[in-house]
Amino acid sequence: MPLFLNVRQLFAVFLLIVWTGVLFASAPAAEPPALNPFGPRETTREDAKPGYIEMSDGKVISGEVYLTRDHRLKIYDATMERQREIPLRVVKEVEATVKKEWMEKEWRFKELANDEKYYTGREYPAREYLHTITLHDGRKITGPLSGIVYVKPEGTAGDEPMRFMLHKRQKGPIGSSLKSLFFVKQIKLGDKALEEGSRKTRRYRPSRPAAKQPSE
């Protein structure tokens, strides 16, 4: 049996290798699964917490609650006399109380280069708040707080989250009243809070505006 292939045999082996490569190259590649443009989008935030937000008018929005990414609740702790940053994962509840409220008069300068002001006769509502943060271990921190909280309501996977402001001081439009100046009254977090919020959401009935009296 010869140990070496002759020229004809080498050429035949070469053609076989080339032909095999062509067959593999022309074989259709497995196609990736088709994407459904109408399918649900994955919008759950890994840092979101179940719970609800309750407004001062009684409206409740339950769902997934979270802050701006990598942000914390910033509150001035009067006991420690310093600003503190609290991550949402350690928070059980946030509650707002009205520290002071009043109707602010609108003043304007008479002229651009003149320091003299005059009262326009119009007013707008203004309010100051204190917030109390309750942690999971029971500790409470009370002080001025400001920030933005987002809620992804239950059953709205593809919708944009709702955005709420937490105020140290808030003012309303000129001509409006204190009664119409709504604010975030309470935030509760946790699975039990989500269940509670769902029940409150189902029970909530918005108040109807008072009927106008017929003009004489």
Overview of this protein structure:
The protein is α+β, with helices and mostly antiparallel strands and 216 residues long. It contains two helices and eleven strands; from the N terminus they run H-E-E-E-E-E-E-E-E-E-E-E-H. Strands 1, 2, 3, 4, 5, 6, 7, 8, 9, 10 and 11 form an eleven-stranded antiparallel sheet that branches. A hairpin with a 7-residue loop joins strand 5 (91-109) and strand 6 (117-135). The chain is elongated. The N and C termini lie far apart (124 Å). Mean pLDDT is 82; it is low at 210-216.
Q: What can be said about this structure in brief?
A:
It contains two helices and eleven strands. It is α+β, with helices and mostly antiparallel strands and about 220 residues long. The chain has a domain of about 110 residues.
Q: What is the typical, i.e. mean, pLDDT?
A: 82
Rounded Rg: 32 Å
Number of distinct helices = 2
Computed structural class: alpha+beta
Low-confidence stretches: 210-216
Taken in chain order, the helices and strands follow as HEEEEEEEEEEEH
Head-to-tail CA distance between termini: 124 Å
Itemize the secondary structure elements and their pairings:
Elements: H1 7-26, E1 49-55, E2 60-67, E3 73-77, E4 82-86, E5 91-109, E6 117-135, E7 140-143, E8 145-153, E9 162-166, E10 169-171, E11 184-189, H2 191-203
Antiparallel strand pairs: 1-2, 1-11, 2-8, 3-4, 3-8, 5-6, 5-11, 6-7, 6-10, 8-9
